[in-house]
What does this fold into?
Amino acid sequence: MDVLRVILTFLSIFAIFPSNIALSGNGNASQEEIVPVVLWHGMGDSCCFPFSLGSIKKLIEEEVPGISVISLKIGKSLIADYESGFFVHPDKQVKEVCEFISNEPQFDHGYNAIGFSQGGQFLRALAQRCPQPRMKNLISLGGQHQGIFGLPNCPSLSRKTCEYFRKLLNYAAYEKWVQNLLVQATYWHDPLNEDTYRVGSSFLADINNEREINQDYIQNLKFLERFVMVKFLNDTIVQPIESQWFGFYAPGSDQDVLPLRKTRLFKEDRLGLRSVPMDFLECEGNHLQFTKEWFIENIIPYLK
It folds into this structure.
């Protein structure tokens, strides 16, 4: 991998995440009460860069002394991890993470999970498909739980790459080869062609019980103590932004947006969400743009 690509990768991530997160903590939870927290990064990021998830890891460790923070790395290198956000099918990623946490004794008493952008729906899939060890609190920061229909400002190496992704998604999202090639195709949700979406979506339609009802998914979601969804009010990456709260466009429209409680998924209770304790949080700013003070006030309490 050439040096220019690595530099561009760092710059693209730097533009998305706040770079000045760090402060001393005053947590007082006992060691017996603290469970590990798992972080899953989003598209255009990796597990461990110091100015993105590395800074989040440090913040949590300072605010909750004694906590173990695991930032997931998919693949054997940071570059492989970065590329996984675009080119490794979510099913494969979720299976790999399930095997990892199932074989780590530190997770035996459960864990909390924080997903950033698409990491939010990947962690939800983990909760639904991998009930042991038990996920306690699922925190989704800008996750797209009803998918996306648009990619206006995708974080990638170049504008040319983003344009290529858009063309694939607009014209061939549900072709099998595109579903296997591009992660974003697996949660592309075309409200103008709902039947095509349900048949062709190889990931989102499954974890949302769009085709058939998987009772295990329903039961496993109900094990959550809290399902926390954060919506970024000025988001220019996720379309529609209401997907971050499980809302989406009305069927047949790419303008009218339905909140969760008016969607088919909720009315038919296809995921059992009526029985899942959910918190809906708002954050001013663009996609994944939050201050350390906001994170400490709104997210840290779920980890103590």
